[in-house]
Inverse folding.
């Protein structure tokens, strides 16, 4: 009986450790047309927004996550032909020529294991109940973010993961140029945010 109890405690400890240990490898882009680290973005904690204008079709504007002055926002203009960057200020609003990027037709494919992992929490929001256990979409193996449109699929991003719940966040950082020319993906490293552009 004592051995069974010890075995149960060991299995419970392994389950708790497995629910806490996570690993996400570096994100790699698959044949992007352009890959550039956004200047001075290492201190940005919120993810930047992307906009484009028909008046400037060779550029994508990255809105810095900083406080605007009225409707004028600090931004970085990135040239889609050579990746050159310059700081600028743009006005956003109903009369603005700048349009936000749109959700892209992407999905996450896991080459490995994908399951609902039990995860411990001390509190839940907004009701404040806890502690307890909830389930998180978890992936172990190679995770690919795949562009899926009109039956044609192609991978955009890939990374190695262990017990990772980052697929939803990766999907949220992929968007489509409102003109239909580009698929854009953002990824964060210690050097800052990287913008990848793929032809749509």
């Amino acid at each position: 009986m004592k051995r069974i109890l010890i075995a149960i405690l060991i299995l419970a400890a392994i389950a708790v450790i497995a629910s806490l240990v996570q690993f996400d490898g570096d994100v790699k882009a698959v044949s992007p047309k352009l890959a550039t680290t956004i200047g001075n973005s290492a201190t940005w904690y919120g993810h930047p927004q992307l906009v484009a204008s028909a008046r400037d079709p060779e550029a994508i504007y990255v809105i810095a996550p900083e406080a605007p002055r009225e409707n004028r926002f600090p931004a970085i203009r990135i040239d889609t032909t050579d990746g050159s960057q310059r700081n600028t200020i743009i006005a956003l609003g109903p009369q603005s020529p700048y349009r936000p990027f749109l959700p892209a037709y992407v999905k996450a494919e896991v080459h490995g294991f994908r399951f609902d992992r039990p995860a411990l929490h001390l509190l839940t929001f907004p009701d404040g109940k806890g502690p307890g256990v909830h389930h998180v979409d978890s992936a172990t193996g190679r995770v690919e973010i795949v562009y899926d449109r009109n039956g044609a699929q192609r991978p955009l991003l890939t990374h190695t993961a262990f017990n990772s719940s980052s697929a939803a966040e990766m999907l949220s950082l992929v968007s489509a140029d409102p003109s239909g020319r580009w698929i854009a993906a953002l990824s964060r490293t210690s050097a800052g945010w990287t913008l990848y552009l793929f032809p749509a």
Q: What stands out?
A: The two ends are 63 Å apart (CA to CA).
